Amino acid sequence: MLEVRTDTVLAGTRYADAVLTACDVPPVAWQFHEGDRMLSGTVAGSLGGPLRNMLLAERTLLNLLQRACGIATMTRRYVDAVAHTGARILHTRKTAPGLRLFDVEAVRAGGGGVHRVDLAHTVMVKDNHWRALAQGGRTLAGALAQARDLGVLELYVEVESLGQVDEACDAGATRLLVDNQSPATVANWGARARSRRPGIEIEATGGITLENVARYAQAAADFISIGALTHSVAAADISLELREQGTGKREQEMGD
Questions:
Q1: Together in a domain, 105 and 197
Q2: DSSP secondary-structure letter at 50?
Q3: What CATH number does the domain containing 12 carry?
Q4: Domain range holding 213?
Q5: 142 and 176 part of one domain
Q6: Is 249 a catalytic residue?
Q7: Which residue of the set 77, 93, 100, 126 is catalytic?
Q8: CA 182 to CA 106: how far, in whole Å?
Q9: How far apart are CA 169 and CA 199, in angstroms?
Q10: 86 and 116 part of one domain
């Protein structure tokens, strides 16, 4: 059985089941659904099969399940912290190589939203892109116009000054990323952007923690993106405990 040792949010179940299937073990009989809170000491689900096959699957299964649950649990903490506001918690692209969709699904299980999975459908102009445009003799307005001509509708621009706020609004940005600024600055720049381009979205990012996230939400940020949800996740404490069939006697515990 899969024993939960700390309070956590369930995520990653289909990946855990895929590992078992690859090792010729039936899927887990889950006792909870994705996104459910599980208290320490509860059993997330039970499984059975040939001992050799279960031992073959256990480490990969636990690695994936623990990471997914860790991401979902941290995401839920941020979501709960801003639940009294209209702000939405998002992931970033700071995901584990090869596991981007996995990490994004875990964020969603925790109640977070999808920011962007790649740049094919969403243009993202960040600080280095601003510099590249300037060095190439191009304007932000020209770059965003080219993206619109290619059918890209989501045009996100990171801003670090009031001048960039004005330029991004005039260029037709659909969302401004206010990076590494105080909640007061987010509120001020957001108000200016909305007066200049009604309907534009405001996203706060950079340096946001559980201790200050509510202040950013109260600064009227529509979205708050947090890289730590995926790049600094602590794995959930979940163990796979084997018992002799029909006896309930512990045979072997695996989870360290």
A1: yes
A2: -
A3: 3.90.1170.20
A4: 78-231
A5: yes
A6: no
A7: 126
A8: 28
A9: 11
A10: yes
Largest CA distance in the chain: 75
Residues 139 and 185 in one domain: yes
pLDDT along the chain (256 residues), means of 10: 96 97 96 97 95 95 98 98 96 90 97 83 85 88 91 92 95 95 97 96 95 96 96 94 63 46
> Quick check: is 158 catalytic?
yes
DSSP 40: T
Residues 190 and 101 in one domain: yes
Residues 134 and 196 both lie in one domain: yes
* φ/ψ (deg, to 5) at 132: -65, -40
Is 105 a known active-site residue?
A: no
Question: Following DSSP, what letter does each residue of 72-91 receive, concatenated?
Answer: HHHHHHHHHHTTTSS-EEE-
Its pTM stands at 0.90
d(CA 122, CA 74): 26
* Annotated catalytic residue 37: no
Choose, from 59, 138, 148, 250, the residue flagged as catalytic.
59
Alpha-carbon span 111 to 76, nearest angstrom: 6
> What size, in residues, is the chain?
256
139 and 190: one domain? yes
Structural domains counted in the chain: 2
Closest-CA residue to 157 (of 170, 94, 104, 226): 170
Q: What is the DSSP letter of 113?
A: B
Name the catalytic one among 34, 58, 105, 158: 158
CB 190 within 8 A of CB 87: no
Predicted pLDDT of residue 246: 58
Backbone angles phi, psi at 5, to 5 degrees: -105, -10
Asked whether residue 190 falls in the same domain as residue 244, the answer is no
Identify whether 24 is a catalytic site residue: no
From the candidates 77, 93, 94, 194, give the one annotated as an active-site residue.
Answer: 94
What pLDDT does residue 93 have?
85
End-to-end CA distance of the chain: 15
